[in-house]
């Protein structure tokens, strides 16, 4: 009898943990996404400051990323490299939650709608549609904080930080000022996120086809996430660079009385031209490639730590 009880205890201890689902699962996806985006974007604030300066004032900042760093430090001191870190961290915390949590949610809804086999056979379309839907909602949350960040970077004396800058824009220009760049941010972020997720999924799938994931250690899986994320970041940066430049321009100053956002965008596009729209691409490739690589690495590790392993994979 004692032996049977011992064996039963062993069986109970060996039983696998039930996988999470519903709100418990997607809240963990959202938390992992919020942390990975806010930490990476916050850490790369100095690169973002230089990139934005190059876009807004290419005549002054005309010596590339390294030269831009030197000029900012010489003219304004090293602390200027952290301009906008508050809205960057807060904005991308919210955006990351909606982006990664939403991507996992909409991917599952696509599987539920289409069936597993159909979703797997047409997985590229599922990745694209899921990431686009997730990013739309993420941008609603991000846009006001991104507008505040750009205003702080473009006008260093505008306000002392996130709260004062946000409050000043709200009282002097109204809620509409926060969403003046909503069109450009959608035009930038939706293609960016679509490229980011589909390239990540495809590169990771290709690697795991040769080196099965089940045979890899956690460390090797993190390395795969880094490499796939780096490729995804480069693709996303190239696709979204013109809209990123326009977003910086339109949020630099408020529009003229009676001037619509559409007319401002058309005017900015004409002024920039194709070459001008890729101003600062070197700094942005470095920035986006690095942060995307680390985002996917952190996201993958945090999902494991949080026990968020209930998502369905449709890769082959």
From TrEMBL:
Keywords carried by this UniProt record: Membrane, Mitochondrion, Mitochondrion inner membrane, Repeat, Transmembrane, Transmembrane helix, Transport
Intervals holding Solcar repeats: 24-109, 122-206, 220-305
GO terms of biological process kind: mitochondrial phosphate ion transmembrane transport
Domain of life of the organism encoding this protein: Eukaryota
Official protein name in the record: Mitochondrial phosphate carrier protein
Keyword Repeat attributed: yes
Organism: Thermothielavioides terrestris (strain ATCC 38088 / NRRL 8126)
UniProt key word Repeat: yes
GO MF, one example: phosphate transmembrane transporter activity
Main location: mitochondrion
Record GO cellular component, one term: mitochondrial inner membrane
Membrane topology label: Multi-pass membrane protein
PROSITE patterns membership: SOLCAR
Localisation per UniProt entry: Mitochondrion inner membrane
Family: Belongs to the mitochondrial carrier (TC 2.A.29) family.
């Amino acid at each position: 009898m004692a032996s049977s009880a011992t064996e039963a205890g062993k069986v109970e201890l060996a039983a696998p943990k039930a996988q999470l689902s519903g709100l418990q699962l997607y809240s963990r996806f959202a938390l992992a996404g919020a942390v990975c985006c806010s930490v990476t974007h916050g850490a790369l604030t100095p690169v973002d400051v230089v990139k934005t300066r190059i876009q807004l004032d290419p005549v002054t900042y005309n010596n590339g990323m390294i030269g831009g760093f030197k000029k900012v430090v010489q003219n304004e001191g090293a602390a200027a490299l952290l301009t906008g870190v508050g809205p960057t961290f807060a904005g991308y915390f919210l955006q990351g939650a909606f982006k990664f949590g939403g991507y996992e949610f909409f991917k599952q809804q696509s599987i539920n709608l289409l069936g597993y086999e159909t979703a797997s056979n047409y997985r590229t379309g599922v990745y694209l549609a899921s990431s686009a839907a997730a990013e739309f909602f993420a941008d609603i949350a991000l846009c006001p904080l991104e507008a505040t960040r750009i205003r702080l970077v473009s006008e260093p004396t505008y306000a002392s930080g996130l709260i004062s800058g946000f409050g000043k824009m709200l009282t002097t220009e109204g809620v509409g000022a926060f969403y003046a760049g909503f069109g450009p941010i959608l035009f930038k972020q939706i293609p960016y996120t679509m490229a980011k997720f589909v390239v990540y999924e495809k590169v990771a799938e290709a690697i795991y086809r040769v080196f099965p994931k089940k045979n890899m250690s956690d460390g090797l899986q993190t390395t795969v996430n880094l490499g796939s994320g780096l490729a995804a970041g480069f693709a996303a940066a190239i696709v979204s660079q013109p809209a990123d430049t326009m977003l910086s321009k339109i949020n630099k100053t408020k529009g003229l009385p009676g001037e619509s956002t559409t007319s401002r965008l058309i005017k900015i596009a004409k002024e920039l031209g194709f070459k001008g729209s890729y101003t600062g691409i070197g700094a942005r490739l470095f920035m986006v490639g690095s942060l995307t690589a680390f985002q996917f690495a952190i996201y993958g590790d945090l999902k494991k730590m949080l026990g968020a392993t209930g998502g369905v994979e449709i890769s082959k």
